[in-house]
Amino acid sequence: MVVGLTWNNARQTGGSAARAGLAGALAVAIGVAVLGIGLPGVAAADPAARTTEWLCNPDDPSDPCDLPSDTTDQLTGQTTGATARVPEHDKPVDCFYVYPTVSNQVALNADLVASPEVESIARFQVARFADTCRVFAPVYRQVPLLGLPAALAGLEGPIDLAYSDVLAAWNDYLAHDNHGRGVIFIGHSQGTMMLRKLIREQIDPHFQLREQMVGAFLMGGNVTTERGSTVGGDFTNIPLCTTQGESGCVTAYSTDLIGLPSLFGNSSYDLITARLGLPTGPGYQVACTDPAVLSGNPDPVGATVPSAPYSFGIISVLMDYTTFPEPLPTSTSTWTTGKGRGTGQCVDPDGFHRYRIQMTVPQAVNELPLFDTHLLDINFGLERLVDIANQQSAAWQMAHT
């Protein structure tokens, strides 16, 4: 669903009790969602009345995507200072970010408000890109965690409503803010699902918009291709990235440690993809692009997260479980890189195509059942993703000047 932090197998003292408590809490929550107990009905979409509620927008200098980049590394003890902030009008490209499932609401669709947990995830996942691009991130009426079982069971209205907000925000951005600028798409989990549909239907068929696509980071959301190909599946024309500095392509993968069956890596088990009308089934392969190759940095990397606490709620509980018995890393810097380090490679055990993390400097993690290390997808090696974005931006500018 969102970012997490530490990694290793969950066998620490006290881990069984923590897992049991969490499993019980989630079972109750899912039961409530499936049975529809206390869940408001789906609000009817009113395109004429809808206006975009921006979570992040370059006109707002204090939104959650505006963080300095100073960072403390817990392994080395070194602190790097913040880079000089580039004025918004001087940033060469834009980023369009759609956040993952984070809402704490007991509802089929979240309200159209920037709740504290939504602001927290923007800090975790996209604020690090703010030195590269102007960040546009719409609030959308996503399907909250407690509403997902109903959507997975076949209720299509909530997912359709969530996507309608993302599409409306994209059209708003194109009409008022883009002015022919290059765009980097960034999404995770439910956000990636929304962007897969948006890019498939609004970008991929249109030459001019494909030309404006600098790149896309579609993490933890089962992007599909034809087997053995960089295209097909979700996109006919837009390929997966394969080489360093390549622009106009997609970076996509889901992380794991030990290869457990999960909701990620095999499109045959992806119910949300089917609900969105996206390609799924055994004829398609879930994408895995190696960020070490695309960034040109094969060195072991860690997980980098904001030092400020994540807003309390379902996701913060899952984060605490992920890092148990240690807390999320923090420091006096705006960002903290944990002490663990790891490398990775794309693997395909039993048809689950994922990015397998191999730790070189260990740090504990508790993998979530059916979600593997989904909470690590963006923040493990976050700097590599930012490097890829910077290289794509430079390549795109060179090709379009």
Structural overview:
The protein is of the alpha/beta class and 401 residues long. The chain has one domain. It has helices at 15-35, 116-125, 148-152, 157-178, 190-203, 207-212, 271-275, 291-295, 314-323, 382-399, and strands spanning 54-56, 71-73, 79-80, 93-98, 133-138, 182-188, 213-219, 224-226, 249-251, 255-256, 284-286, 304-306, 335-337, 341-347, 354-361. The strands form four sheets. Strands 1-5-4-6-7-9 form a six-stranded mixed β-sheet, sandwiched between helices. It has a four-stranded mixed β-sheet with strand order 3-2-13-12. The protein has a three-stranded mixed β-sheet with strand order 10-15-14, with no helix packed on it. Helix 4 packs across helix 5. Residues 1-50 have low confidence and may be disordered. Keywords: Membrane, Transmembrane, Transmembrane helix. InterPro entries: AB_hydrolase_fold, DUF3089. Residues 59-83 are annotated as: Disordered. It comes from Rhodococcus gannanensis. This is DUF3089 domain-containing protein.
Strand order of the largest sheet: 1-5-4-6-7-9
- Per the principal axes of the C-alpha atoms, what is the gross shape? globular
Radius of gyration: 20 Å
Helix fraction?
25-40%
- How many domains would you count in the coordinates? 1
